[in-house]
Amino acid sequence: MDYTGLLAILGTLSGIALGWIGKARQAKQDARSSGERDASMRIDVEYIKRGVDDVRVEQKLQGQRFDALSERVTRVEESTKHAHTRIDRIESET
After folding, report:
1. In sequence order, which ranges of the chain are alpha helices (DSSP H)?
2. Is the pLDDT of residue 1 over 70?
3. Chain centroid to CA 75: how far?
4. What angle do CA 37, 40, 28 make, to 5 degrees?
5. How does residue 41 score in pLDDT terms, banded at 50, 70 and 90?
């Protein structure tokens, strides 16, 4: 039997097997790193969503505060107008 031919066949088969194993291992590592990147991105997006929700709530509260302040200013202006009317009446009597 020819040992060199047998060794060549065994070397070729082991090269193919090792190449196949290396490729499968690399595919697993690529999938793992892709999954980690996706998970990290999802976490970042969720953080941004929570931040946007917080900003919306704060904006709504600021709108309510502004409406309340506008109402108070309107009342103060009306009160001031009535006070000026009374002061004018007092000044005209004297």
Report:
1. 3-93
2. no
3. 41
4. 30
5. very high
d(CA 47, CA 33): 21
Q: Report the distance separating Cα 86 and Cα 79, nearest Å.
A: 11
0.70 surpassed by pTM: no
* Sign of the CA dihedral running 80, 86, 90, 93: positive
Q: What is the DSSP letter of 94?
A: -
Amino acid at site 80: T
Q: How many CA atoms lie within 13 A of 30 on its CB side?
A: 6
